Amino acid sequence: MKIRTSIDEAINDIQDGATIMAGGFGLVGVPEKLIEGLLRKGTRNLTIISNNCGIDDYALGTLLKTRQIRKMVASYVGENKEFERQFLSGELELEFVPQGTLAERIRAGGAGIPAFYTPAGVGTQLASGKETRGFNGKEYVLETALTADFAFVKACTGDRAGNLVYNKTSCNFNPMMAAAAKVTVAEVEQLVDTGELDPNFIHTPGIYVQRVIECSGYEKRIERRTVRVSGGNGPCH
């Protein structure tokens, strides 16, 4: 059975030193309930692979505050001041990866492709010490695939077989991460019976998912709220 009845049950075997992929983009599609479970569990020395670390008081940002993260593999620091502080002070190990390269490294890991060549990062510090090679007169850098012990993903709908459907921006990293870990844990906003999802619109097949838990009470935060000035035509930040 893939269904779990509590967050604590879903993550009970995650030990110190684990490598975890966490889906989402900014504050969208973030597996916040699973991350809250890790915060309660107190698991430490974690390597987290995620596009960014959100903001200081939400999701992965809370694990930074409690020093549970040893290393981040991410494409940018984003809006998180604690992330920036720990990185600049040398308290946090950080592997910067161009956003498209990060996505492809994860996808390659799920596809069983150990490495690939990409033009992104050539001639910059990101290519330092890496193999480069020319193809058709253009230089490329060799990047290795990424895999993890666990993947935390967030879907809007899932069924009892582990099939998942994501909503809009949540498709950016969640689907590829689900395929690139030894154990994928999915939190879903709505759990339906097997057979209720249209097979033509399933984003992650259940074969990639080992555990599913239905969650509620999501905050639906906005990273930067933009509104129109009352009576005006321009935006106000």
Give the low-confidence spans.
none
What is the domain total for the residues? 1
- The helix fraction, in percent, is 10-25%
N-to-C span:
47 Å
Counted beta strands: 13
CATH homologous superfamily classification: Glutaconate Coenzyme A-transferase
The major β-sheet equals:
8 strands, mixed
Total helices: the number is: 6
- Oligomeric state of shown chains: single chain
The CATH class, by name, is: Alpha Beta
CATH architecture: 3-Layer(aba) Sandwich
Beta-strand percentage range = 25-35%
User: How many whole angstroms does the radius of gyration measure?
Assistant: 19 Å
Q: What structural class do the secondary elements suggest? A: alpha/beta
Tell me, briefly, the overall form. Answer: globular
The CATH topology comes to Glutaconate Coenzyme A-transferase
Which features would summarize this protein structure in a list?
alpha/beta, single chain, globular, three-stranded antiparallel β-sheet, eight-stranded mixed β-sheet, 13 strands, 237 residues, Glutaconate Coenzyme A-transferase, 19% helix
Overview of the molecule:
The chain is built from six helices and 13 strands. It has 237 residues and is α/β, with parallel strands linked by helices. The strands form three sheets. Strands 1, 2, 3, 4, 8, 9, 10 and 11 form an eight-stranded mixed β-sheet that branches. Helix 3 links the parallel strand 2 and strand 3.
